Amino acid sequence: MKLYKKEGNIIQILSFPNETVEKGDYLLVEDGEAGKALIVQVIDVQFANIPGVLEELLRSLPDGGEIIQGEDIDPLEIAPHITYIQDSRLLICKIRATVEGEGLSPSSSWLPSRSQSTIKKLPISMLFKLARVDGKLPIVLGGTKEASLLTIDATSLDGRLNIITGKKETGKSHLSKLLITSLLQYKATVVVLDLNGEYAGLGMTSDGKRNAYYNKIHVLTPSQNFKVALNQLHLNVLLNILINALHLPGTSAREFRRIWQFLKEKGSLNLHELGEAIRNWHCNQNVRDALFSRYYAMVNSGFFTDNIAEATLLEECLFKAREEGGAIIINLRNTSSIDRQIVVEYVLGKLVELLTSWKLKAVFLFAEEAHLYLRETYWDDIVTRMRHFGIFTTFITNQPDTIRENIYRQADNIFLFNFTNENDLEVVSRAARVDAETVKSIARDLPPHHCLALGKVVKDFPIVVKVKALDVKTMGETRLFFT
Amino acid sequence: MDVTLPQRFIELSIHSLKHMQSNPFQLNQQTLQQNSSLEQIHALQPIPLNPKQTETTIAAVDTSSIKLGETSRGIIIAIRGTSVWKKRRNYGYLRVGPFIFHITEENLKEVYTTLLKAYFPEQNSQASPGFAQIPMRMANLLEKWLHASLAKTVNNGIILFDGSLTAGTPDTPVHQLKEILNTARSMGNTVLAFTKMTTLRLNGYLITDAWLNQKPPCLIEIANLKPKPPLVLLGDVYVAKLTNGNCAFRLDIDREVPTPHKVEAVEKLLGNDLITHSYPETLRLAHILCTFTANEVIAMQHFIQQKYRLKLVNRPDMHRLLFGPFGKGESHNEAV
């Protein structure tokens, strides 16, 4: 390999056919005299612009598009050399860091010698040693293509905002399950907003037996084993539900607050009494109608109950998880859009309440296709306010444009699976922790179950990893007509 | 095709290269061209042509030479030749080379005369060419060998040469060309030689420009040409306008072939080969297949470097050095 060109932080390296280098590989450009080396990553492999190649190709197809039949007598055996030159490649590489002595710096302000530099492949294991990607709480994500394991530190997810994205059936949910189970090993509290009921089988092996996480998985299905009684609710949580999920106008909300205070003082906070109070309340008819329509929406959701025995205390599950670690799976499958929003408002409100009162230390929140249930104002809340309370969110989506740009900008870690659509790649490339060229070039060619890990988990050295297999029961499979 | 490998080419090529190991050489690519001059031309009436579909093999030969660079003792050249034929609607080719030679003052004569004697023993050894002519003359030797091979192996076909049938030049002795034409004729072949660039003029106009308005396909015979000695015309000279457009070429047809057969040969060519811009596809392919591309030049330089551990040195171009952007480079100057 030979150093050819440098423009900005892009280096072009000439590589010959006997040198196997692929997209995503790391190279070390060592300048012995300068005592420094550049760590560069191949983000694209192109044919070298060899003069005369076009003529070469054109003359091999002169007979109306068919290859002309003939014999070459090449006594000096020049043909292999022609092929060698023709197949030489240009590696487009991004400068990631400079190695100087024992240390690494992100600088790319120096230029290694074109004639004296030696270029060799940098194994991922060596890169990690240099970058000190290790830790006390290892999570094995999978294998790199050099067959070495990619191990990240669980602390690099702690207090961070993560995004798992990629097109359908590339392995996003699989990775999030891997992260959840790995976090459980370290006694973390995890809450999963499970849109398709995919995470309900986390406590079971693929053949239906209980696994090590069985006792740590709590699946809560709204209106089935997950109901709340009004007297368990804080007024603010219910008002959030009414205003944000059920779009109750401000005037009506003020009346509702009075009704709530009235019932609370009376000691009869239940659905039946609430209905009666709205019916008999002295207020404008329009306000009454607005309150009634929301009341019936709440009743019809089945999420609220007057039966205390039926009501599941989310708090209890969270406290249980706090001690030994556990995952609370909020199964939103078969839940209508409005009901989903009611449930999510309740869960997030409850989490904030418990976290602000320090009853919980921190929670890892996994949210699948959050745009389907998360209200507009929550996005900013999650990356700013809630983060400080201790809600560390991982968004999982196959529609990257549904996540706001500022979320990408502030994301600490991105696990990027294959995308072929230009627009999707364009959206993801807005992430602050990675350059657009890397995202666009590498993500397009990722095979299924391979992801490009970006951000703090890999110390900002983008790595392609094949996510390791996980022995958990697959749930939420797509219903098919022909099978 | 029954073609024996040009063994002496290979032996000499390897031998010459072995004697240049670790000599630095300068990269320099340049093409050499040949000229010819004739006078006193008289025009005749056009002969209309009717394409004849009678199945006839069309064969053509072309060669290329290139200077790969300089060493401290000489130059490195490469030559390659191609025969292309069209038979039953299919094209085929035989490409020999590239042969790479290291030519020095010491071995120039030896290399040239050895090859000449090996392939044309009956030809008298003339003065060996200089450095400037050697690539062209070596390619010419290979071309003549390919001509001879085709003349012997093709039956009742049309053989297309690149250039004219003018003999008596240092690279085309009369005896040599005559023998090739005789052999071709004995096998029932007709030799047609297309010249891409002619210097023949009629009333001040190039002969190929004089009949551009004629309806193609047609031939115009340029009779009573008297070349200056020692030049000899072994073919009758025509202007061939074979397709619409602004292209016409000088066409030499073996003089010993009876006139009706000459016209018939061109008609068979029209009926059996693809003609674009008045030029036969078979000859075009021969040219395309033997021409060295820049990629191949790099590959040959790579080969020399790898196999003979040659250290490449680029000598400064004095024209560029002295005149900057006004210096057009040595090769350009030499060509002028």
Structural classification of chain A: alpha/beta
Number of strands of chain A: 21
Mean pLDDT of chain B: 78
The Rg value of chain B, from CA coordinates, equals 21 Å
- Bin the strand percentage of chain A: 15-25%
Number of domains of chain A: 3
Q: Give the mean pLDDT of chain A.
A: 85
Low-confidence stretches of chain B: 25-43, 331-336
Helix proportion range of chain B: 25-40%
By secondary-structure content and strand pairing, the structural class of chain B works out as alpha+beta
* Relative strand content of chain B: 25-35%
Helix proportion range of chain A:
25-40%
Order of helices and strands of chain B: HEEEEEHHEEHEEEHEEEEHEEHHHH
Q: How far apart lie the N and C ends of chain A?
A: 52 Å
* CATH class value of the largest domain in chain A: Alpha Beta
Tell me the strand order in the biggest sheet of chain A: 10-9-21-20-19-11-18-17-12-16-13
Largest sheet of chain B: 10 strands, mixed
How many independent structural domains of chain B? 1
- Rg of chain A (C-alpha, Å): 29 Å
Low-confidence stretches of chain A: none
Q: What is the overall shape of chain B?
A: globular
